[in-house]
Amino acid sequence: MPVWLREHSWRQTLAAVYLSLPLRGARATPANIFCSEQYLKVSVPPFLFEAILYAPIDDANSTAKIGNGNIFFTLYKKEPAMWDSLTLANAGKEKLQYLRENAVLKAQEKAKEETEAKKITKQEHKKYALEATMRLEEAERKRIEHLKEQERQKIAKELEFWKNQQKDADKYKSIQKKGELPQEIEPLKERKNEKMNKTRIPNEETSKIRLKSTKGHGSRSIFSQNLKEEQLPAPRAAATIKVNFTPRVFPTALRESCIAEEEEWLHKQAEARRIINSDLSELEDLKEEEKNPDWLKDKGNKMFVMGNYLGAVNAYNLAVRLNGKLPLLYLNRAACHLQLRNLHKAIEDSSKALELLTPPVPDNEDARVKAHVRRGTAFCQLELYTEGLQDYEAALKIDPKNKNIEKDAEKIRHLIQETMQSS
Amino acid sequence: AGPERPQVVSHVQQALSYTVFDCKWVPRSARLLCLGSAARGTGLVQLYELHGARLELLREIEKPKPIKCGTFGATSLQQRYLATGDFDGNLNIWNLEAPEIPVYSVKGHKEIINSIDGVGGLGIGEGAPEIVTGSRDGTVKVWDPRQNDTPVANMEPVQGESKRDCWTVAFGNAYNQEERIVCAGYDNGDIKLFDLKTMSLRWETNIKNGVCSVEFDRKDINMNKLVATSLEGKFHVFDMRTQHPTKGFASVSEKAQKSTIWQVRHLPQNRDIFMTSGGSGSLHLWKYEYPAQRSKKDSEGSEMGVAGSVSLLQNVTLSTQPISSLDWSPDKKGLCVCGAFDQTVRVLIVTKLNKI
């Protein structure tokens, strides 16, 4: 239960009420004071002072001074009139309650309005600041542009001047050609005179004269140009120089960033060729050439071309048993399986081929495109169109110019759309 | 970017209706040539003149095969004949005033001529006028316009050796009538230096990336510096004054950008400044600084070169496509033209080069 403070004293003028409230030793801060238009409360635990004012006051302008164990309120009346008493005497409990709540609500509303107003002013300030910076930056940019424009115009003028000089020099030269003096003494003398007369030395004359002086030769006669032409050496005796190049397996240009990948690929290929699985018992029945995976691959290729797909598969199977690391064997076997409609096996083989065709280098681009296309075809024939499309798109990525792949990819996309629409 | 740094200002931009492979200034003039391939598979040579802020097309010449590269290097200042290499391996020299029939023509190579250079003309350097061509067929051939049909030097692979594309060639060391050196860069990273006086291989090295462009800083002096640019955004500057018996020439290398550096061109008026053009459409302007001592003795007492350092003066991105060709004007310092694969040729001016 709070302790009510009742020892307040007050006096009034027409416009204001002065209320003095002694705090019994307690300290008060502005947070402890709550004031609205007709309600005043001071709560400094455990003390409590509450007053329903006789008439409304202007709570925005009223002040409270805290000090000396006392709070001194200066409340400005809304309507200048003399109050009978500080508080409303006949305030019932309910009225009190109602007034209290009302006061609190009003205070909250006011607080909300104030924050709103603050937000708006803040935004306006920001906007203003932004516009000011924009204007400043615009001015700066214009200044720089202006400088650049000036520079450009200056250069353009210089260029025009130089160009006109060239034109003049050309004209002069063509006149001279027409004249075709056997000795160049006369024109040179004239030119030298011109050089002294003109304030700005034309390029052609000085450069010609300068060129002659930079030769640094003993014979610097005026006939030097003519003589030079006569002194041109005969064409060289034809000869050949044989050249060796730093060895490079790939036909593409050397790039430092691709060296590691290319090395890996070459290494893998070399490894693959060396592996021969030699502990198969059936090997003894085979002829010498049948133990060579490359020979078997060729055999398989021939049979494929002739339409003997089963035979080709057999050849590739044996080759794979001998050397399981050649990607081309799996690639070709996948093609056979496609023809035989062993679609799952075709997918397996294409996938195995792709595995072996890493790292991706320009050298194995063709093989990778074929592997993707074959796997894609197999997926489509199994009606797994999305997977098939993925493979076709991968093939397109490697070889974007291939029209057939593009057409097929389009067809698959249409098929997918149809199945989606119908399902 | 301090105010004293050279600025690259784009002066004129011209959209073309064909792929431009090479662009060259016509010496002693404000005219430039664009060489390329039209959509219908023919070659085009267009002659433009600089008029204020635009390029005016003066002449257009169409040839049966697309043209890859061209040079004025072997022609005299009066004649100004253009030597071109085309996609079919033909080397032709044209008189632009009468371009119907070439002044010189030879089917020099079996495949496209990737790069061409000329020396002995334009009043620069000494000795016979010669043109060198490098081709995808792996050979580098040197031609004399006074000798028909057969090259005066042929650098070809040894019998049985598989060929590598030659991507770039350059002349150098032409300081008197006898000396000549040809530098060739190949797609497997090989750089080879051929001495034409002794007809032998003088030096070779491999820079681990395909060599896109090589250039000596000057053709007509005792060879001083060689810049080689390559794939993967790298370039190397070799100091060519001192050759060590085993280690060859000293070099410094720089990785400028993520993409291929297509061309390097030295400023004709200052041989220590060069510009590189990149696959990302950017141009970088570099300055080479010499070391305190250009050569030193190694542990066995032989001389070896010391490479200096390269600093970036400016860079600018002009296009989204590679800038494949670049040429400085020999007459106006800082004026250059570049052609990019976005079918645009741009005339640029690099300012403040006097202050370097």
From TrEMBL, chain A:
Output a single Gene Ontology CC term carried by this record: extracellular region
Which Gene3D superfamilies does the record associate with it? Answer: 2.60.40.790, Tetratricopeptide repeat domain (1.25.40.10)
Q: Which GO terms describe its molecular function?
A: nuclear estrogen receptor binding
Check the record and name the InterPro entries matching this protein: CS_dom, CS_DYX1C1, Dynein_assembly_factor_4, HSP20-like_chaperone, TPR-like_helical_dom_sf, TPR_rpt
Q: State its location(s).
A: Cell projection, Neuron projection; Dynein axonemal particle; Nucleus
Segments forming domain CS: 3-87
The residues bearing each TPR repeat, given as ranges, are 369-402
What does the record list as coiled-coil region(s)?
104-156
Which GO BP terms apply? determination of left/right symmetry; epithelial cilium movement involved in extracellular fluid movement; heart development; inner dynein arm assembly; nervous system development; outer dynein arm assembly
This protein is called Dynein axonemal assembly factor 4
- Report the source organism: Edolisoma coerulescens
Gene encoding this polypeptide?
Dnaaf4
TrEMBL record, chain B:
**Where does it live in the cell?**
Dynein axonemal particle
Name of protein: Dynein axonemal assembly factor 10
Per the record, its GO cellular-component terms are: dynein axonemal particle
- Note whether Heme occurs among the keywords: no
Q: Which InterPro entries match?
A: WD40/YVTN_repeat-like_dom_sf, WD40_PAC1, WD40_repeat_dom_sf, WD40_rpt
SUPFAM superfamilies referenced in this protein's UniProt entry, alphabetically: WD40 repeat-like
Q: Which residue spans traverse the membrane?
A: none
Q: Which domain of life is it from?
A: Eukaryota
Function in brief: Key assembly factor specifically required for the stability of axonemal dynein heavy chains in cytoplasm.
The record, for PANTHER family, names: MRNA EXPORT FACTOR AND BUB3 (PTHR10971)
